[in-house]
């Protein structure tokens, strides 16, 4: 390939607008890959943590003992966070009211807040991936249009359409298009994948909250049945 038509040379000799477009797409691509690796690690860790906690929860361990074993609320995550929030509220309300419904409503509200925080934690930065995925092709297209406009201006100035006249402009336009796709394709693939994984985990947390709520309901019912007549 002629050195004047090599990709590095075309990038360095491109117009300022197209260079800014390429720089923006490069930065967006780098940041999106950072988010992809970081979010993938978070999802993998959340999946393993949830599996370990559920095995411990359904092993028959006493709930008070499990609550004492869990770390502080700032250190817990996932279903463990939902459990700790709900059981803490259960223990707080139990000596204060005789209404099982009031206790269960308080527990449900507390678990809903914990679930919302987990939703925020799992979806962190996914909006950025969606933005890169949707905006990059259009940013690249802007660079393409600018390059095509430059080729027409070059033709009008030389009064003849030769390959040497238009090739650099067309090449930089196509490079801008390619960079837009290079940034967008991984972002959209991993956004869909990470969003699906986040929704699966949140669904598991919600299922656990419902099951835990039922356990506490049976616990309160048992206390009421065994109480004084």
Automatic annotation (TrEMBL):
HAMAP family xref list: TolQ
Tell me the protein family, please.
Answer: Belongs to the ExbB/TolQ family.
Establish whether keyword DNA damage is in the entry: no
Tell me any Pfam family this protein matches: MotA_ExbB
User: What compartments host this protein?
Assistant: Cell inner membrane; Cell membrane
- What kind of membrane protein is this, topologically? Multi-pass membrane protein
Keywords of this entry = Cell cycle, Cell division, Cell inner membrane, Cell membrane, Membrane, Transmembrane, Transmembrane helix
MotA/TolQ/ExbB proton channel domain residues:
77-206
Q: Per the annotation, which location comes first and is thus the protein's main one?
A: membrane
Does Repeat count among this protein's keywords?
no
What is the recorded function of this protein according to its Swiss-Prot or TrEMBL entry? Answer: Part of the Tol-Pal system, which plays a role in outer membrane invagination during cell division and is important for maintaining outer membrane integrity.
Query: Quaternary state and partners of this protein?
Result: The Tol-Pal system is composed of five core proteins: the inner membrane proteins TolA, TolQ and TolR, the periplasmic protein TolB and the outer membrane protein Pal. They form a network linking the inner and outer membranes and the peptidoglycan layer.
Q: Which residues cross the membrane?
A: 12-37, 126-149, 169-191
Would you say which domain of life the source belongs to? Bacteria
Instruction: State what protein this is by name.
Output: Tol-Pal system protein TolQ
